[in-house]
Structure formats: structure tokens, C-alpha cells
Write a structure and sequence with these properties.
about 110 residues, globular, five-stranded antiparallel sheet, 4 helices
Length: about 110
């Protein structure tokens, strides 16, 4: 990809009774999941917690975002990972991405 990476930010809630489980899962993210994200041209992926709110951020450095996201979504290991993480989460924002737990945020400002 030429130029700057595309930046993405998302928000989701974490169920209070599942918060510790979610954090524990992310202390040891499966290497296959991390590899698939890298293969999908995802970089600088971070998840932050503030109480029961999770904020995610990553940069995309590829040329075909939709195709790369489909490859990640179709990966059997990633699908199995999500069977562990998804039950820990709850949508907290308006549904901008129908059916998704993590909802996208609009970038307001960026210092380049």
C-alpha cells in the first residue's frame, strides 16, 4: 500500500462477570490469531480497557481491506478464538456495523 496506513478504532462493552476471563485470554492471545491478523495487513493492534468499556485500535497497511477482513473472518482458528471472546462482550454503542459487537468510531483528530 502506498501512503499512510488506514486507522480504525472500535468500542465494545465487556460483561462485568466476564471481564477477568477476557483480560486473561488477552494475556496470551493465540499465536495463530496474531499471525492471521498480520497476514491480513493489520498492524499496531491494541485493546484498552476502561472499566467495562473496551477500546480497540489498529492500522491497516494493505490494498484490499474487505478481502483481507474476509480472510481473517473465514479463518477457523480465528473463529474458534471468537467463541471464547465474544461471550465476554456486549454492544454498548449504536449499531453502525450491523450484527457486530465492536462498533466503529469516527476519527475526530490525528497528529501525524
Amino acid at each position: 500500500m502506498s501512503g499512510e496506513p488506514r486507522r480504525f478504532a472500535f468500542v465494545v462493552g465487556v460483561r462485568p462477570e466476564k471481564r477477568d476471563e477476557y483480560l486473561e485470554l488477552h494475556r496470551a492471545v493465540w499465536p495463530e490469531v496474531e499471525a492471521k491478523l498480520r497476514e491480513g495487513n493489520i498492524r499496531n493492534y491494541s485493546i484498552y480497557a476502561f472499566g467495562d468499556t473496551l477500546f480497540g485500535y489498529y492500522e491497516y497497511v494493505g490494498d484490499d481491506y474487505e478481502a483481507d477482513m474476509r480472510r481473517i473472518d473465514d479463518d477457523p482458528v480465528t473463529q474458534r478464538w471468537l467463541t471464547h471472546t465474544d461471550p465476554c462482550q456486549v454492544r454498548i454503542a449504536e449499531e453502525r456495523n450491523p450484527g457486530a459487537l465492536w462498533q466503529p468510531l469516527d476519527e475526530v483528530w490525528h497528529l501525524g
